[in-house]
Automatic annotation (TrEMBL):
Keyword Nuclease: no
Keywords for the protein's UniProt record, in alphabetical order: Nucleus, Transport
Transmembrane segments: none
Zinc found in the keyword field: no
Localization (cell): Nucleus
Gene3D superfamilies: Leucine-rich Repeat Variant (1.25.10.10)
Signal peptide, first to last residue: none
Domain of life per record: Eukaryota
Originating species: Aegilops tauschii subsp. strangulata
Residue ranges annotated for the Importin N-terminal domain, each copy included: 34-104
Protein name, per record: Importin N-terminal domain-containing protein
GO molecular function ontology, one term from the record: small GTPase binding
Length: 728
C-alpha cells in the first residue's frame, strides 16, 4: 500500500498502533489523550485514514489493539458515510480491502468489521445498487472457501463468507418501499437468490448431513455454518419471495424437517446441543414466515410442517426440566400451529390432532410445575410478567413478545377455541332460499372440545398444596380460561357460570393456594365485561380477601396481592363499581406501608383509581386518608432525591387525586354541621400537605434536583393555599 507522506500520523502504522493501544489503558488520562490524538488525525482529513485503521484491524499484532482499531473504524464510518469517506478511487480500494479482510479475520475482529461492512452494503448495494461485482465475487469465494472446497483457498473461511452473505441479506428482511402495495422483489435480492442461494441448497444439504450423521469433531463447525445459512434464508423470505428461492423451497424444507425431527426433549439438552437448538429455532421461525407471508408457495409443505411441529409439541410435558432456549422451541411450535390453523387448509390439517394437542401438548405447557414455584419465590416480577400478562388481546395475530411456551400455548388455545369447521348440511335439512342462517358454521371448537376437556379437572379440595396434582392441573385450567377471553366474551352466560362455579370457590379453600388465587384474580380482570351486577358483592369480597392475603412462612403472596390490585382497578375503570366503596378504600389504605415499596406503588395507583371513580362516595374519608398516605410518603422520602423513587411519585399522584376529589364548593350556610366538618377537613388537609411538602422540598441547596413530578407538587401547593383560604 502506497503511503501519503502529507499525513505521517495516519500513514505511519507505529504511531496509529501506539494511540490505539493507549485507548486500552486502565489510566483515564492516557485513554483521553489517546482518543484526542485519534480524533485529531481523523479531523485532519487524511483520505487514507480508514484504510490505515483497516490495516491495523486486519493485520498481525495484539488482538486488543486490533479490536480497538476495528471499533474506531466502525464509529468513523458511521459518522462519515453520508458525507463520503474519501475520493471514489480510495473509497473503492477501502471497500475491496474490507471485503477481503472479512474473509480471513478471526471471529472477535469479524464481529466488529461486519458492522462496518453492513453500513457500506446498505449505501452501495441496497440503496444505490452501485457494486455490481459484489455478488459474482462472493459466489466465487463461497464456492472456493475452506469448508466447501478444501484446499482451493484455505485462507477463505466459509463461516466468514457466509457471515458476509448474511450481512448483505439483512437489509432485505424488511420491505424497502413499504408504502408500495405490491412491491416487487428487488433485483439485487433476485440476483443473490439465483447466483448464491439456489446453488447453496446443495451445500445446505451437505451441512445437514454433517450435523445429523457425522460423529467427528467438526460437527460444531458445521452447526455454525448451518445456523448462518438458516439466518440467510430467513432474511431472504421474511418479506420477499425471490424466484430462485421458490425453486429450492421443497428441498430446503426437507432438510429443515430432518433437523427438527432430530430433536429429543426426553432429557435436558446438553450444553453441546445449543447450536442444534438455535438451528431448530431458526427453522421454526422460517416456517412461521412461510405460512403467514408466502402461503401459496408453502401450501404443499403444510402437511409436513403440521406433522413436524405437532410431534415436537407433544414433548411439552418435559418443559419444567428444560432451559430457556428449549422453551422457545416449544413456543415457536405452538406459534406455527396457530398460524397454520388460521389458513384455509389449516383446519383440515390440524383438526385430526385437536384432542391429542389439548391432552399432550397444550395442557402440559399450562400446568403448574416446579420451575414456576421456584420463579415465584426468586423473581416474582418475572413470574407475573410471564404468567399474569396485562392483556392477551391479539390472539390471532403474531405477537413478538410471546416468547414462552406457556404464552404461546395460551395463544394457540384462544385460536383453537374460536375456530370452526366447514358447515355440514344433510339433504334432509337443506334450507330454503333466503334462509338467514344459511352459510353459518356449526359450533366452534371451544364448545365442542376445549370447555368439556377443562371440565374434567375438578376444583381442588381443602388442604391441597402446590405439590398436589389437582392443584397443578387446576392451575393449567385457570391459565386456559385466561386464554379464552375472546371466546367467553361472546358467551357471557358461560363466562358467568365458570366464574361462579369454577373460580370463586377457590377463594374459600382452606388454605387458599396463592398460585391459584393469583391466576383467578387475573381471569376476573380479563373477563370484566362479562360480569353481572348480581355477582358484584361476591367478586369484590373475593378480591379484597386476596388483596389482604398475608405471606405464609415459606411462600410470598405478593403476586396474589398485585394481581388482585390489577383486577380491582380493571373492574372500576370498566364501570363495575364495588358495593361498598368505603370498605374497599379502608382495605387498600391499610395495606399501604413503607416496608414494601413495589407493593405500595401498586396500591397508590389503585387508591387514585378508587378516589377518581368514587368521588362523593369516599369524600368524607379523604382527610383521614390523606393523613395516613402523607405519613407513609414522608417515611419513603430519601435524603437525596436523585431521582425520587417510583413509589413516592405514585404516592403524590394519589394525593393529587384525593385533593381533586375534595376540591368542591363548601356546603350551604344553613347546613352548619356539614360546613363545620368540611372546614375541619380543609384545615386538616392543608396542615398535612404543608408538612409533607416541607419534608419533600426544604432540602439543602446542594441536594435540590429537578423533580419529575413537579406538576403534581405545584397542584398540591396551590391546594394548600386554597385550603387555607377556604377554611378561614
Amino acid at each position: 500500500m502506497e503511503v501519503d507522506a502529507a499525513y505521517p500520523a495516519a500513514a505511519a502504522g507505529d504511531e496509529l498502533r501506539r494511540l490505539l493501544t493507549a485507548t486500552l489503558s486502565a489510566d483515564k488520562a492516557s485513554v483521553d489523550a489517546a482518543t484526542a490524538g485519534l480524533d485529531r488525525i481523523s479531523a485532519a482529513g487524511d483520505p487514507r485514514f480508514p484504510i490505515a485503521l483497516l490495516a491495523v484491524a486486519a493485520g498481525d499484532g495484539d488482538q486488543g489493539t486490533r479490536i480497538a482499531a476495528a471499533t474506531y473504524l466502525k464509529n468513523f464510518v458511521r459518522r462519515n458515510m453520508e458525507g463520503g469517506l474519501s475520493s471514489s478511487d480510495l473509497y473503492r480500494e477501502f471497500r475491496d480491502q474490507l471485503a477481503q479482510a472479512l474473509l480471513r479475520v478471526e471471529p472477535a475482529i469479524l464481529r466488529v468489521l461486519i458492522e462496518v461492512f453492513g453500513q457500506v452494503v446498505v449505501k452501495d448495494f441496497v440503496k444505490e445498487n452501485s457494486w455490481p461485482q459484489l455478488v459474482p465475487q462472493l459466489k466465487l469465494v463461497i464456492q472456493s472457501s475452506d469448508a466447501i472446497s478444501p484446499g482451493q483457498h484455505p485462507e477463505w473461511k466459509t463461516i466468514n463468507a457466509l457471515t458476509v452473505l448474511q450481512a448483505i441479506l439483512r437489509p432485505f428482511q424488511y420491505f424497502l418501499n413499504p408504502k408500495v402495495v405490491k412491491e416487487p422483489v428487488p433485483e439485487q435480492l433476485e440476483q443473490i437468490a439465483a447466483e448464491i442461494l439456489a446453488p447453496l441448497q446443495v451445500t445446505f444439504h451437505h451441512f445437514a448431513d454433517k450435523v445429523l450423521l457425522s460423529h467427528d469433531g467438526n460437527k460444531l463447525e458445521y452447526e455454525q455454518l448451518l445456523l448462518i445459512t438458516c439466518k440467510c434464508m430467513y432474511f431472504t423470505v421474511r418479506s420477499y419471495m425471490p424466484s430462485g428461492v421458490k425453486q429450492i423451497l421443497p428441498s430446503l424444507c426437507k432438510d429443515m424437517f430432518r433437523v427438527l425431527d432430530s430433536l429429543d426433549f426426553n432429557s435436558p439438552p446438553e450444553d453441546s446441543a445449543t447450536s442444534r437448538l438455535k438451528i431448530a429455532k431458526r427453522c421454526l421461525i422460517i416456517f412461521c414466515t412461510l405460512v403467514t407471508r408466502h402461503r401459496k408457495h408453502a401450501d404443499n409443505q403444510m402437511p409436513h410442517i403440521v406433522n413436524c411441529v405437532i410431534r415436537i409439541s407433544k414433548q411439552s410435558i418435559h418443559l419444567s426440566k428444560l432451559n430457556s432456549l428449549s422453551d422457545r422451541i416449544f413456543s415457536l411450535t405452538f406459534d406455527v400451529i396457530s398460524r397454520v390453523l388460521e389458513t384455509g387448509p389449516g383446519w383440515r390439517l390440524v383438526s385430526p390432532h385437536f384432542s391429542s394437542l389439548m391432552d399432550s401438548a397444550i395442557f402440559p405447557a399450562l400446568a403448574l410445575n416446579e420451575k414456576d414455584i421456584a420463579e415465584w419465590e426468586e423473581d416474582t416480577d418475572e413470574y407475573m410478567r410471564k404468567n399474569l400478562p396485562s392483556e392477551l388481546d391479539d390472539i390471532s395475530g403474531w405477537a413478538e413478545d410471546l416468547f414462552t411456551a406457556r404464552k404461546s400455548a395460551i395463544n394457540l388455545l384462544g385460536v383453537l377455541a374460536l375456530s370452526k369447521g366447514p358447515p355440514v348440511v344433510s339433504a334432509a335439512s337443506k334450507r330454503k332460499k333466503g334462509d338467514k342462517s344459511k352459510g353459518k358454521g356449526g359450533s366452534c371448537i371451544g364448545e365442542l372440545l376445549v370447555i368439556p376437556f377443562l371440565s374434567k379437572f375438578p376444583v381442588p379440595s381443602h388442604g391441597e398444596d402446590a405439590s398436589s396434582k389437582a392443584v397443578q392441573n387446576y392451575f393449567g385450567v385457570l391459565m386456559a380460561y385466561g386464554g379464552l377471553q375472546d371466546f367467553l366474551s361472546e358467551r357471557k352466560d358461560l363466562a358467568v357460570t365458570l366464574i361462579r362455579n369454577r373460580i370463586l370457590p377457590l377463594y374459600y379453600l382452606d388454605p387458599c393456594s396463592p398460585y391459584l388465587i393469583s391466576t383467578a384474580n387475573w381471569i376476573i380482570g380479563q373477563l370484566t365485561l362479562c360480569l353481572p351486577e348480581a355477582m358484584c358483592t361476591d367478586i369484590y369480597n373475593s378480591l379484597m380477601k386476596a388483596l389482604s392475603m398475608e405471606d405464609a412462612e415459606d411462600v410470598t403472596c405478593y403476586p396474589v396481592r398485585a394481581s388482585a390490585s390489577g383486577a380491582i382497578a380493571e373492574l372500576i375503570e370498566n364501570g363495575y363499581a364495588p358495593p361498598d366503596w368505603v370498605a374497599l378504600l379502608q382495605v387498600v389504605v391499610k395495606r399501604i406501608s413503607a416496608e414494601d415499596e413495589n407493593e405500595s406503588a401498586l396500591l397508590f395507583q389503585l387508591l387514585g383509581t378508587i378516589v377518581d371513580a368514587g368521588q362523593e362516595k369516599v369524600a368524607a374519608h379523604i382527610p383521614g386518608t390523606v393523613s395516613n398516605i402523607a405519613n407513609t410518603i414522608t417515611n419513603l422520602l430519601p435524603s437525596v432525591p436523585d431521582p425520587w423513587p417510583q413509589v413516592v411519585e405514585q404516592g403524590f399522584a394519589a394525593l393529587v387525586a384525593m385533593v381533586q376529589a375534595w376540591d368542591s364548593p363548601a356546603p350551604d350556610e344553613n347546613k352548619e354541621h356539614e360546613k363545620s366538618a368540611w372546614q375541619l377537613g380543609q384545615t386538616a388537609i392543608a396542615q398535612t400537605f404543608s408538612t409533607v411538602l416541607q419534608k419533600a422540598w426544604l432540602l439543602p441547596v446542594e441536594q435540590m434536583v429537578c423533580w419529575q413530578s413537579g406538576s403534581q407538587v405545584r397542584y398540591l401547593l396551590m391546594s394548600v393555599g386554597g385550603c387555607a383560604i377556604k377554611s378561614v
